[in-house]
Amino acid sequence: MILQPILENAIYHGMEGMDEDGEILVSGRILEEEDGRRSVLLSVKDNGFGMTEDKARALLEKTESDYSSFSSQKKRGSGVGVINVHRRIQLRFGSVYGLRVISAPDEGTDVQVLLPAIPFHGRKPKESGARKHASQHSAFSQRLTGGGEGMKENSIFTTGLFVVALLLLFLSVGRLLGDNDPERFKISVVVDHSNSDVWSGFKMGLTAAGRAYNMEYNFVSTDRLVSIQQENISMQREIQSGADGIIAELRATEGTGSLLNALGKNAEIMLVDSEKETTEPGLNISSINVEEEALGKALAEQVLHSTLHKEKKRIGILAGNQNKGNMQRRLKSLISVLEAGGQEIAWVLPDTGKIQEDMVKANHKRSVDLIVALENDSLEMASRYLKGNR
User: Fold this and answer.
1) Which conformational region is residue 156 in: left (phi greater than 0), alpha (psi within -120 to 50 degrees), or beta?
2) What is the pLDDT of residues 286-341, one digit of tens each?
3) Cα 273 vs. chain centroid, distance in angstroms?
4) CA angle, 386 then 388 then 390, to 5°
5) pTM
């Protein structure tokens, strides 16, 4: 609920009139303060039209009565949610924390949220269903060699990834529909391995969006999508069947320009966790992504601060789909920080469709202390591998 009103404002104001050029980056990092405190800095940055310094400052200074006209009209992105988040954070943690709005005309807007980094030490409650699934997949790396303790899960960072995944889907649907008419919209979702438990959170978001935006969705049943051409066939079929919009995670970056040029003339397209080639202006194609370099850096920093007491660790990396440009940037950032920290990269395995088999072979040749998985599919496979080798 902290990021939701900020993202909503970025979509309905920052992205207004941006067409396919609109971009929103969501990032987060840990700050080490001079007095020894640790803080969490979240950022929602858009490349929209921006605003003057006075308007940016006024966003966090208005009173509830200033928003009464917006409330009566139920206008999305009115700003009341933003200031409520700011005030609740300050009431709970003090005036040093809260929101900061950085903006300038024609230079976009960056809304930053500063929170104290509070470690969780309590006993975990009994979990079930989708929440249990999210908890099981929260650790991004574990120790492979025998003896000792594995790497601690970073509850703040990994839980944040799960929440952002839900927000990306929910808000991508909102971006497609905007202020729609009462008619029922049809949205199709085309992603790799759609029946995997990895997508359970996205399906939860779709169900919530269906109630909020009067839509029906079709989560297209797929196995492994081996090429962008195969994915294109699925998207074309959905449009021919009457889909008003498509939400897709592209399997590759190369070759997507001409593909999306054709699709974008017949339906609105929202891309998540994807990088595309340049497309024709004026098409209804938008993207919502995380900041890949920041994500790779954050993963590397967690490894560097691991509780595994070895100055130099041998690390295996499950690199995910390296046909995607955004995944290439994520991997490059991760390796750069790890090598700068004096760590040894034993092997890097892209997703070839045989992750477990590739891991067995790679770890037999060079055993590692830690495995880092860059995306959910690889993380799920790594978990199965580790359980089978205990």
Assistant:
1) alpha
2) 887 778 898 888 888 888 887 766 678 889 999 989 999 999 999 999 999 999 99
3) 7
4) 70
5) 0.60
